[in-house]
Automatic annotation (TrEMBL), chains A, B:
This is Histidinol dehydrogenase. Keywords: Amino-acid biosynthesis, Histidine biosynthesis, Metal-binding, NAD, Oxidoreductase, Zinc. It is an enzyme of class 1 (oxidoreductase). Its cofactor is Zn(2+). It comes from Alishewanella jeotgali KCTC 22429. Zn(2+) binds at residues 262, 265, 363, 422. CDD domains: Histidinol_dh. The gene is hisD.
Amino acid sequence: MQRIDWATLDSSAQQQALARPALPDAAALAPQVREIIAKVQSEGDAALRAYSASFDKLDNNPLQLSLEAQQRLLSQLSPERKAAIELAYDNIRKFHAAQLPRDIEVETSAGVICELKNQPIQSVGLYIPGGSAPLPSTVLMLGVPAQLAACPRAVLVTPPGKPAATDIAPEIIYAANLCGITEIYTIGGAQAIAALAYGTETIAKVDKIYGPGNRYVTEAKQQVSQDPRGAMIDMPAGPSEVLVLADALANPAFIAADLLSQAEHGPDSQVILVSDSQSLIDQVELQLSAQLAALPRKEIAAKALAHSRAILTPDQATAVAVTNAYAPEHLIVQTANAEALTAQFTSAASIFVGQWTPESAGDYASGTNHVLPTYGYSRTVSSLSLTDFFRRYTVQRLSATGMRNIGPAIVTLAEAESLEAHANAVRLRLAALESAAQDKN
Amino acid sequence: MQRIDWATLDSSAQQQALARPALPDAAALAPQVREIIAKVQSEGDAALRAYSASFDKLDNNPLQLSLEAQQRLLSQLSPERKAAIELAYDNIRKFHAAQLPRDIEVETSAGVICELKNQPIQSVGLYIPGGSAPLPSTVLMLGVPAQLAACPRAVLVTPPGKPAATDIAPEIIYAANLCGITEIYTIGGAQAIAALAYGTETIAKVDKIYGPGNRYVTEAKQQVSQDPRGAMIDMPAGPSEVLVLADALANPAFIAADLLSQAEHGPDSQVILVSDSQSLIDQVELQLSAQLAALPRKEIAAKALAHSRAILTPDQATAVAVTNAYAPEHLIVQTANAEALTAQFTSAASIFVGQWTPESAGDYASGTNHVLPTYGYSRTVSSLSLTDFFRRYTVQRLSATGMRNIGPAIVTLAEAESLEAHANAVRLRLAALESAAQDKN
């Protein structure tokens, strides 16, 4: 880790110390991804099979994973893993069930009723990365809210397995089935996003796409979300990151383990330690070396650590200010006063309080969602929540009384905005009410 | 209006009948907007003044509207307009206050506490279009939720007035002040969006930008939202649109007035009438001609009507299906059974129920928000709501008991995903708890 003594930096160097590594240039990738999307749009399933042959070396990807194939995979799963997935499912379900949005009805003026209503997104597509490790936890993070929202259709796509396309990790199938998802496709990459956004013969189009992926997937999500005929997406993506704020009394072994669990995600992961204790930083560095050596993914983690930082601050208040300026995706607070500090954080996407709360807890099984805004986006973008699987719309109804009560103000405002037809739509109605009233008299 | 007999069309012609007009090619605009943004980033206030000189023919735009200038403008405002703005403010406030998000705390397993918390966006920028007509109503639609959310900073930008930059419509200032906004800048266009997203000497950067604008503004919002150092935006934009669903008993004069109040927004507005009654369609056409002739903005409205459609359906169920397929921004339901029909709509952004509920009501004063997803985006994007001025984040805390309860499942799941460091962060803690327990015995 790069050591930084915060107090010795001027403000521009401080800004630099909190800068994220530049993202790989999406512009370089964009034309290739655009070509893939165009080919899936024009050739459908044939394009998907062709990409599977060239990218995945699979001659005959069936694209859809049959229910029989799903049953066969499930029979391979150990009871221990099933139980662990069920525990995570239950906790994620409990936390997200508490987020069910409520409809609202307000009579704003007499006879003027306004409603805000929630409706599940009709068709959602969940992207689950494959590659180096299967991610059943991500299936739960996307599938549980889709199930609770009662989205009429939820489908899952994940890269084909090896040696056969159908060799998907049984954990993914088990988690999907728990969430009521059986429509599963063995495709990945930009071509999977294109298939979800535009549809093919086999895969019907979805309205919104969720889930993390590599930079081809990210660029494809970006592109289809810019096209009104494409699909909406969950949130902008960036490399995962953690900031640990610790004091002199924190456990250096725990902190090193937490930093490494972020670092092993990928070489572009960012890991930051902020402390007002030089001695704590020293001890964490020692622990990092010792623990790193024993990790199977030590090369990935070492690369991530190489561009990571240990920031020494003159006091805890500065450590909090540094944290808020960075706006971390994950914030782990390991200080004696962790609970009291929590209210001071203004920009973290997910906060882990105290020594018994590692990031792994939220990654898997505490109940919170692990799909989080990163790269500083947490200042404005929310943690994935149940509400992201709904759309909110309004309904209003005016009675004749309501029209009489607010109609004259509407006419005045429309005139102020020189929108005469807007005024007219109300004047006509007020005149009709007036003449009806006179008929009565 | 173009007449369409739905039953005579094949499915591809039906799809074509509901297609929106192609948007002007953003790609053509993109380089010019990119140049404006880059110039504001590098030259700050000087760039803003230079654009004001070339675009607005204003030699010395002060950029910020002083409190004195605001007071002077307010003194020009009639009591009648003040009262109308206040009525609208009160209703919008009542409806949005009912939307205050609640924080959630759930103990998912014993000793595992998860929270979902809401925090106002720290700094928001509200764009209010100028040009042909000032839009105080949009100030309220953006300013009221910013005030209710208690965003620590809310600023307003609007194109400079004429002949002096400070000649802003008093209605805009009055509405802004009601919402507690006094930081007001007299700049518009792509340069205003750039100033909000990146900051200049005079204008501090904001976190999120809200509000409608012309295609330069829209393209600039799109560009700054793609840059992690830029700013988030409220929603994708498109031309405004209304669909009126009416039966044989509906009032043709009301319907024509509603269609025209959408058509006068701009030549790209889209206006659709769907009915199972040929006679109603005929009567609305007659009313349209009569009412159009009397409108000051009749040329704009006539252009919009030229690409608008009257769709005859064989029955009401088909009319509902057509409406759902189109996914209108505004849906006005003028049928005898309007109330009962409302539950059948699956994609409209805002629904206006019954003959006394013109679109003007929601545009100005009923209380609902008039910033709505258009161009089919309402299938997945929500009506602007109070929640769009908050970010949601999670907090979790495990006690030693909590770690004991879910730790083993986390280890199992991390192993299943081959993320050994994730497992390790938990194993270390379980071991520490184990050894502490043995010390006690």
